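We close this part of the discussion by returning to an individual protein. The encoding preserves chain order, so positions in sequence and tokens coincide. The sequence in question and its structure tokens are set out directly beneath this paragraph:

===
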Amino acid sequence: MREMKPTCDPNGVYSVKRVCAELGISYKTLRKYRESGYIKPLNPGNVYRPKYSGQSIIDCWHILCTL
């Protein structure tokens, strides 16, 4: 995971690939974070193409930094 705060727009909508790039993690790690409740997709019903808000990326980063 990156040590620097993500630079994404809090109002933006991001794909799995972009979320992984912002946090510096793999898609498998993102799946674990989603299952653990650290980050929540905007469309939880669509498991094949989840989208994430920029604010949820920033919130996830803050949660993981305090662990």
